[in-house]
Design a protein that fits this description.
It is built from eleven helices and eight strands. α2 crosses α4 and α5 packs across α6. The chain is 40% helix and 13% strand. It is an alpha/beta fold. It has one domain: Alpha-Beta Barrel (TIM Barrel). It binds 3-methyl-2-oxobutanoic acid. The site of 3-methyl-2-oxobutanoic acid has 11 residues, from β6 and β8.
């Protein structure tokens, strides 16, 4: 059965109705189709693609062009899920007008339904500028990976009284600026619960405990495909790396021994004269 398109108002209503939101970072056409068939509500084309797909050490080098390439691929899958394009580092920090221009590219060229930006109070005016152009914006606060140089690494945020208050203020400022939802990353679960109760817009947690309105993880992490460091909040739903390695080694072995291709896997001019493929 065809799913109905998940829109921004649908996502916002899910909080009011107490329906939990399932979001996943996905970067390509075939995986977007699978995620959609699995019933994912929101596909985030996250800048984590820099690490997971492009082999960078952090998300910092990711460019607009790299993001757009993957946003377009996911959009071509025409998912029912809401497609959110992550704004890469330095595509929205310089000025609200530059941020708006780049957010517009994600919608016009990439085909995304919405964009996501990292940062709290310091990005509220940017979120407002993008939202005023009727481009839906998701916020992202807490352990924001584009700020790792400032944090000194991937460190849980909001553990101290001052840090907690700052993150609550960030969340309230983004709601006030018009964000339709906020990702809470790498914060203690009690703080995430408090923010979720304070806000009327949905919170989507990653490493923020069970009380958020929704959860987001990276597809390659839950499928057991990523080779790098996997944090404690990831749950692996499959361990595909050994299976893929076995299949690829099987192919290499068969080519080397001549077991592939068989005559059944080869064209025969007498039998196959009508079919080319
Ligand atoms: O880039 C990403 O995939 C993200 C999520 C993990 C929230 O920002």
């Amino acid at each position: 059965m065809e799913r109905k398109k998940v829109t921004v108002p649908v996502v916002m209503a899910m909080k009011r109705k107490g329906k939990r939101i399932a979001m996943l970072s996905v970067y390509d056409y075939p995986t977007a189709r699978l995620a959609d068939q699995a019933g994912i509500d929101i596909i985030l084309v996250g800048d984590t693609l820099g690490m997971v797909i492009l082999g960078y050490e952090t998300t910092l080098p990711v460019t607009m062009d790299e993001m757009l390439c993957h946003v377009k691929a996911v959009s071509r899958a025409k998912p029912a899920a809401l497609v959110i394009a992550d704004m890469p580092f330095m595509s929205f920090q310089v000025s609200p007008s530059e941020a708006l221009r780049n957010a517009g590219r994600m919608i016009k060229e990439g085909g995304a339904d919405a964009v996501k930006i990292e940062g709290g109070i310091c990005r509220a005016s940017t979120a407002k500028a993008i939202g005023d152009a009727k481009i839906p914006v998701m916020g992202h606060i807490g352990l924001t990976p584009q700020a790792i140089r400032r944090f000194g690494g991937y460190k849980v945020q909001g553990k101290t009284g001052r840090g907690r208050e700052a993150i609550i203020d960030d969340a309230l400022a983004l709601e006030e600026a018009g964000c339709f939802a906020i990702v809470l990353e790498g914060v203690p679960w009690k703080l995430a619960k408090e923010i979720t109760e304070k806000l009327s817009i949905p919170t989507i947690g990653i490493g923020a405990g069970p009380h958020c309105d929704g959860q987001v993880l990276v597809c390659h992490d839950i499928l057991g495909l990523y080779d790098g460091y996997v944090p404690k909040f990831v749950r692996k739903y499959a361990d595909l790396k050994p299976d893929i390695l076995k299949a690829l080694s099987g192919y290499v072995g068969d080519v080397r021994t001549g077991a592939f291709p068989s005559l059944d896997e080869s064209y025969d001019d007498a039998k196959d004269n009508k079919k080319d493929r």
